[in-house]
Amino acid sequence: MNNAILSNVYNHYLTTYAPKSTTQYDTHKKSELRSIYNSIVKLNKESPWYLDTKNPATQKYAVSLKENARLLHNTIASLGGLEEEQSLAQKAAYSSQPDSVEALYVGSPNNEENASPSFEITVNALATSQENMGSYLPDAPVSLAPDTYSFDIAINDLNYEFQFNINAGDTNKDVQERLVRLINNADIGIKARLDAGNSRSSIRLTSTATGLPEGKNNIFDISDDHTSKTSGVVDYLGLDFVSRQPGNSSFLLNGEERSTASNTFTLGKMFEVELKAVTPEDSPAVIGLKTDVESLTDNINTLIGGYNTFVNAANAYKDTQSLSNRLSKEMGSIAFRYTNDLEGMGIRLQSDNTISIDETLLHEAASGPQGINSYQALKSFAHALVQKTSQVSLDPMNYVNRIMVAYKNPGRNFASPYTTSAYSGMMFNSYC
Predict the structure, then answer these.
(1) N- or C-end of the chain: fewer Cβ atoms within 10 A?
(2) Mean pLDDT, to the nearest integer, of 25-35?
């Protein structure tokens, strides 16, 4: 399997299955990986043999269950950790101007508030990406002779050569659409799109990165001066015209001038800050830590939101995957165990196994004399969800209708840790 096919598989996985990008909670210690491996071995050692699942919709469903379980697991981990006593203890950040500066607390839950000072940020300019705007050409036959053409893109100290054919009868728009697909499928850090209107069209190329690379004027350069195939397409399509130069952000941090290549950065290992817009003149954005009550209610909303997202993902398959309804009911059963304690906080289980929140009752309960100490039921609920997501991640096929081949001979089986490689096969199946 060549690199192009591997790239296509990876992109297919990200766009089809992965609901969110990887986070710090997707990294694991050797002991954690060993524990997962041992769990897989134990799970598969005595499990029956089933026929492989061939239906593409069922394969997508199974892998999606794993990914949504990972998302809920990471959501709970972000609220203070996976240990029951640490759950919901994560502090939350605030920004006085969230439309201009967004802040996320990424420090330890054990940090004292007086150890986390507030910051004032005045945004003067955002970091910008590079944009190349090609020539607007009429939707008419291409003027270049039929041949195999190529051009080079230099980005991140790497050079990529793109080859394509121009055939007799191709129009300018045909060629432009072909190049847009070619560049996007390569996934080299440049997004291509076709701008069309009034019977004319142009290729717009935008870097995914922002800021000026050290010692350079551009993030990427396009040329066909020394390419291996026929040249001329860069000049014809105007691909090398830089319509917007990349630039670094410019802002004041507590009155001191600062600049970054990205609009997202970390302050004092406590806040992850994203610059989103220029702040009004003489009106800096203030970021800091929310009160314990606000942090607690934010964490509870995040927990319930993650739970609802998982249940809704299972409910979305109830018409095509009969056992998805069983997963939804199992999640509802977990929530039902804590109903008596949670209803007093304004947290109620719904008929579709999702959970609703009465914000007024929740804030009143969080502001009570017991505060977070009275939230043991929620901590236990979160811990039960962690255990459930681990089970679903290990064996999502438990919620798929399968044909059983045979039971194994009890007590006389070899360990079978490779059964879960079927999930990799589900992702690669369309490409091999």
Answers:
(1) C
(2) 73
